[in-house]
Amino acid sequence: MPTALITGATAGIGAAFARRLAADGFSLVLVARDEARLGEIAGQLKLRYGVSVESLPADLATDDGLARVEARLRDGVDLLVNNAGFGHPQNFLEVPVEDELRMLKVHCEAVLRLTLAVLPGMKERDRGAVINVASVAAFFVHGTYSASKAWVVNFSEATAAEVGNPRVKVMALCPGFVRTEFHDRAYMDTSHIPGFLWLKADNVVNAAMRDLALGKRVSIPDVRYKAVVAIGKFVPRTIVSGTAARFGR
Question: What distance, in Å, lies between the first and last C-alpha atoms of the chain?
Fold first, then answer.
């Protein structure tokens, strides 16, 4: 039975990955900060899908938390989903530098370290996959969040090319707005976002798994966001950044 480790696994896209992979017969290792909630989710998945579910409480903004997850990955998993992440409600100049550094720790350092921890075993076994959850924001210019997600996309593509093995896959997943706890946790006002732009987490995960099977290195779920990214490539970056800033506010 294959094993998948998912960070940020108790809500949103992470929880959707847990449901999908449990239904596909994966044993799960779920990583999140909230130990009580982690145990509750693990129990529900065991009961519903009859799979093995391991809880691994860890704060990926800390070296201790990262080290714990790295150690588990070196024991061997078949799929790593780097999903943990968060946003800020303020613009860049209004965010304390400590909070920005914490974002970079979770979005960039954690993705780097966990990917490096899991890939040697995958290469040795000649199979495995890493899905790094980025964002459509990676293709636009708006603060540290979009910059960190652009790094995730670039890192994922570069790593996939360096691995050079179609049986060991690395893919960046770039969803748009998804109905999750993400915006509520960041105290973001989403009332101005048109309803047609919202995606369902389960649909995002289904698209990601399809694109992973097809060997794609970047997955943009939903034709609406594929169009947004395609159009954005032909618009001057000064206009894109100004529009993103106004939309973000």
Answer: 46
Alpha helices in 138-236 (DSSP H): 143-163, 182-185, 201-213, 223-232
The 3-state DSSP composition of the chain as helix, strand, coil percent (nearest 5) reads 55, 15, 30
Give the CA distances from residue 160 to residues 20, 113, 217, in Å, rounded to whole numbers and listed in that order.
Answer: 24, 15, 7
Residues 6+ apart with CB under 8 A from 89: 186, 187, 188, 189
Strand partners, 6: 30, 81
- Catalytic annotation present for 187: no
Helical ranges in 24-96 per DSSP H: 35-49, 63-74
- Which of 49, 145, 187, 225 is catalytic? The answer is 145
Alpha-carbon distances of 15 from 28, 148, 204, rounded to whole Å: 11, 22, 12
In the DSSP assignment, the letter for residue 11 is: S
In this predicted model, what pLDDT tens digit does every residue of 33-77 receive, in sequence order? 999 999 999 999 999 999 999 999 999 999 999 999 999 999 999
Place of tokens 């969803």: 175
Instruction: Answer yes or no: is pLDDT of 245 > 90.
Output: no
CB 108 within 8 A of CB 146: no
pTM over 0.90? The answer is no
Could you state, in order of their start, the residue ranges of all structural domains in the chain? 3-248
Q: Domain 3-248: what homologous superfamily?
A: NAD(P)-binding Rossmann-like Domain (3.40.50.720)
Q: What's 196's DSSP letter?
A: G
List of residues 6+ apart from 116 with CB closer than 8 A: none
